[in-house]
Amino acid sequence: MTVTEAPVATPINIVLLSLFVFLVYLRLKPAKPQTLPRAPPPTVFRTFTPPELFPYNGLNGMPVYLAVRGRVFDVTSGKNFYGPGGPYANFAGRDASRGLACGSFDEDMLTKDLDGPLDHLEGLVGEQLDALQGWEDRFSEKYLVVGKLVAVPSDETEADAGGDAKPAAA
Amino acid sequence: MAGIVEQLDNKIAGLLAGWNIYSTVLLVGIIGFIGYVVYDTQDADTHPLLLARQAQASYVRQPGESAIYRSPETPHGYPLRTGLGVKPPGTPMYSAGRDGDLRDIWRRVTGEIPLEKNVQSSGTAKLMTIFGKEGVKEHDIADITKEITIIGKHLKDHGAKRVAIYLPNSVEFLAALFAGAFYGFSPILIPYNQPHATLIDLLNATGADSLIAQAGSLPLADVGKGVARLRQVIWTVEETSRHMDWNEIPEGIGGKIDVSVWHQLVQDHKATPGTLPENRGEAANVVFLWQEAVGKGAEIVEFTQHNLSAAIGALISALPAAQRFTPSDTFLPADAFTQSYCLALTLAALFAHSTVTINSVAGPGVDLSLAARKVAPTIMVASAESAIKLHNTTTVTITSSLKKLAHYLETTILTAGRMPTDSFFSRLNAPSRASVGTTPGKLRILFISERAGLNTPPLSSNDLSDIRIYTGARVIYALTAASVAGAVAQTNIYDYRRGHGPENKHSHFGVPVSSVEVKLKDTSSHKTTDDSAAGEIVVTGPSVAGGEASLGATGTFKEDHTLAYV
């Protein structure tokens, strides 16, 4: 078989040609840009009253929140400590200020009447306030502030309670 | 079973029986192609995932607002960038450095404040002026220092507090700006080429008591009458017109205004030593005007020195280390110094001891190849108008299918995340390029800015990609605004992605610079939800005049966390 007689369109040539074209196509095909999964939507800052904060105790798939001196921290990532069954579980969904200041995890450290006024921390001494400040600094470093805590009959709470009273962070 | 194998064997044998010289050629071609692909495959300039999620969003947002977005350089919980990190000689090695101000920038230029470790330069920054066709003149930094002291002292002695600088881009412009910082007066930067009536309005609105302007650029009699507070005028005179007497005071304004001439002042005080005064207290603010076009009304914005140094520091650090300004760079501002973005980048170039070439042909819409003739800039800053002009004039030259193919091939390289480099194929069949600078291929970065609220022509991501091919430079697209010094946000230098957003709309503006944080406030038509962030752009940070500013434009943060107009 000489060169001049060689047929071009033999099956093997067609196979090789299509392979070639396919490789060129692969090369020129624009690569799909890499994408990351969507970031979780940011938590909306809320104003809580003690009864509203109460369900955020880690039970029933809820996140764990606790309040220190009016600021509500999302401590879900520290669930082992603050969640159900943890050593600090009493604080979940509650105002933990007095308990943290006194270094006590007992029930009687918590404000009993959720509908009553907030605990203004009367009767705490210097050392206890220092301890509380230490905790607060630690929380601010580690956890997000997702809201503020106000007493129940507050104008601001009533104004806000309509729209975003539903948990936005769930 | 054996039958199937045998049949398959026969089929393959039959297929191979047709092997001839063309098959060999094809096989060699395939192997050669695979070899070329293996040889040619390179990593993208940056990791693609770094472009997939760019700004950092805060985890908590206020109701009625979006999350707060920041540059990854200054994450949430860390302070925003406040300055340049100036380290005068004798500063402890690991200290962060001072924020600095314009005085420190000039002291860096003169070499009084050293460069960073491991950076070598000739000892000072370099300043050159391009004179039309005639060529390029280099200025002696010590001479300019002397001019700063002479002009500054002259204005201070005459009680100047607010000095309007009405000059095209020039060395005198920069000298007057620095003189303000050293001698305690506020420079007012007025965009050049205003109609006389507008100029008088602007001088009155800004409360200027002195004026530095090009001789013959304005009628002194009218301005003297129209601007009651004006006490002092300094003319700058081009070398070719210095034989004329410019000290003449027109009749009718009496002895109210003191007129002097820049080069004569410098001449008269040649003997005095040009030593800069010690830094005492805060340097004065700098006043910028935010104007859609000459002749229109302007928003007056006063930036403190802190605003400016934060803006410059953020623009420097926004570039990755390998791409920053170096002493071997040649910087050409092709936009006006009265734009804070252009000025901040110029000061950044001076701070890094780059060579700054100044062409008075600069401003929105200038022809970039005209602005860059006689020099070979490596970094340029241009207005969106100039960039779109360059894009349009070059695009019409792509007519032959070979040029189209070359353009297409470089586009695929860009889409793959790499900047096209000179290769065998690009030399064989080069795509259409725009001629910017005397040495093609020298330009490495082109800064383009969108001015919020001023009807700047939009550049889509495809336009920007084309400009990368036409200039061979990496393109940065920035969002600038009246009350924010420097930029609000600018694109990642390695972000070459195309097809983001519709054609004929603004491309995205990347991430906020490290001196600001950006949030979007709900408007009646655009609201932030759990799925998307949209609303009026609100900027906070050390480079914002007054600390916080609302841009009056609606924006959104896209899925890749880049800021864009809605």
Automatic annotation (TrEMBL), chain A:
<keyword id="KW-0472">Membrane</keyword>
<keyword id="KW-1133">Transmembrane helix</keyword>
<keyword id="KW-0256">Endoplasmic reticulum</keyword>
<dbReference type="GO" id="GO:0005783">
    <property type="term" value="C:endoplasmic reticulum"/>
</dbReference>
<dbReference type="Pfam" id="PF00173">
    <property type="entry name" value="Cyt-b5"/>
</dbReference>
<keyword id="KW-0479">Metal-binding</keyword>
<dbReference type="InterPro" id="IPR001199">
    <property type="entry name" value="Cyt_B5-like_heme/steroid-bd"/>
</dbReference>
<feature type="transmembrane region" description="Helical">
    <location>
        <begin position="6"/>
        <end position="28"/>
    </location>
</feature>
<dbReference type="GO" id="GO:0020037">
    <property type="term" value="F:heme binding"/>
</dbReference>
<keyword id="KW-0812">Transmembrane</keyword>
<comment type="similarity">
    <text>Belongs to the cytochrome b5 family. MAPR subfamily.</text>
</comment>
<keyword id="KW-0349">Heme</keyword>
<dbReference type="GO" id="GO:0016020">
    <property type="term" value="C:membrane"/>
</dbReference>
<dbReference type="InterPro" id="IPR050577">
    <property type="entry name" value="MAPR/NEUFC/NENF-like"/>
</dbReference>
<dbReference type="GO" id="GO:0046872">
    <property type="term" value="F:metal ion binding"/>
</dbReference>
<dbReference type="InterPro" id="IPR036400">
    <property type="entry name" value="Cyt_B5-like_heme/steroid_sf"/>
</dbReference>
<keyword id="KW-0408">Iron</keyword>
<protein>
    <submittedName>
        <fullName>Cytochrome b5</fullName>
    </submittedName>
</protein>
<feature type="domain" description="Cytochrome b5 heme-binding">
    <location>
        <begin position="48"/>
        <end position="150"/>
    </location>
</feature>
TrEMBL record, chain B:
<keyword id="KW-1133">Transmembrane helix</keyword>
<keyword id="KW-0812">Transmembrane</keyword>
<dbReference type="GO" id="GO:0004467">
    <property type="term" value="F:long-chain fatty acid-CoA ligase activity"/>
</dbReference>
<feature type="transmembrane region" description="Helical">
    <location>
        <begin position="19"/>
        <end position="39"/>
    </location>
</feature>
<dbReference type="GO" id="GO:0005783">
    <property type="term" value="C:endoplasmic reticulum"/>
</dbReference>
<dbReference type="InterPro" id="IPR042099">
    <property type="entry name" value="ANL_N_sf"/>
</dbReference>
<keyword id="KW-0472">Membrane</keyword>
<feature type="transmembrane region" description="Helical">
    <location>
        <begin position="163"/>
        <end position="185"/>
    </location>
</feature>
<protein>
    <recommendedName>
        <fullName>AMP-dependent synthetase/ligase domain-containing protein</fullName>
    </recommendedName>
</protein>
<dbReference type="GO" id="GO:0016020">
    <property type="term" value="C:membrane"/>
</dbReference>
